[in-house]
Each structure stands twice: as C-alpha cells, then as structure tokens.
Known about the structure:
Oligomer: single chain
Structural class: alpha/beta
CATH architecture: 3-Layer(aba) Sandwich
Bound molecules: flavin mononucleotide
Amino acid sequence: MKSLVVYTSVSGGTRTIANEIASEIGASLVEVKGDHLHTGVEDVRIRTEPGSVDMEQFDLLFLGTPIWMWNPSPVLMTYLKKLNVKGKRLALFSTSEGDVRGAMEKLKSELEDNEVISIEDFLNPKLKEEEMNRSRTWAKKVVDIALKQR
Ligand SMILES: Cc1cc2nc3c(=O)[nH]c(=O)nc-3n(C[C@H](O)[C@H](O)[C@H](O)COP(=O)(O)O)c2cc1C
C-alpha cells in the first residue's frame, strides 16, 4: 500500500504530526506552501506545484491542515482544487487548540469523489506532546482499515 501525506503548516504543529504519520507508515510527504495575501482566509497564493505529485501511484492519501477560525487552511483547500483528487481513499487530519467545529466537514465537501476512511484532530503537539504518539497509532489504524478494504 503506497501512501502519501499532503499537508500545510504555518507554525510547525501540523508539520510535526505529518512527519510522525509519514515515518510510522513509510509514506511519502509533500508540504504545500502558500502565502496568505490578506488576513481574509480565502486570499492565498500557492507556491507548491500540483503537477509535482503523481497521484496515480498512491492508494491512500493523508491530508493535514491547521484549523484557523473553525476552517481548514485556505492554502490546502486551494491546492486541492488544483490537484483534482478523485477515487482515492482519504484520511483527513487537523491540528488545533481543540475547537474544530465543522472545519473538517468543509474539507470533506471539497473531496466528494473519494472515500474518507477517517477524520482525526490532534492538539498542537507544542501544547500536548503525546499527540505525536497518538498520531502514529492513528496512522497505523488507518492503514489497517485501508488494507482490509482492498
Ligand atoms: C489565526 C489563527 C486562528 C486559529 N483558529 C483556531 C480555531 O478556530 N480552533 C482551534 O482549535 N485552534 C485555532 N488556532 C490554533 C491552531 O489551529 C493550532 O495552533 C494549529 O496546531 C496550528 O498549526 P500549524 O502549527 O501547523 O500552523 C488558530 C491559530 C491561528 C494562528
């Protein structure tokens, strides 16, 4: 099972969790970089080329985002629109301070032509270091589920 972790991060919390997940299951890793042009959440410029990812070779895609004002990162949302993800098994994760509300439903709604296996939020590991281990356990569980579905 070939897995890819695609994530964005501003202050490093989501990057830490993405690294834990990728190292636990031997996944490839792509950080999506972008600039927030204004304080408004939608206005972003993406600096990571979607064409650099060959989606065809991956069976399982982890997507990770920080939560900002109960929303997924507009950098990730904008990138996904360009990436055109279809027919994949997905595991969605966020890092936050614990108040996610409907953020991940918004992310899921961008990904309708896929099967979402699991959605999980992790507290920013700077606030709670144990989240690093919990993310490893979760990643293994997701892979198990995906393998059983084959
Ligand atoms: C502008 C801003 C808005 C945030 N909004 C929320 C929020 O709505 N809910 C929440 O639980 N945490 C919120 N946080 C905390 C971040 O989601 C959390 O620190 C996250 O782990 C940051 O990820 P990163 O380090 O990968 O950038 C916010 C942080 C910032 C800077």
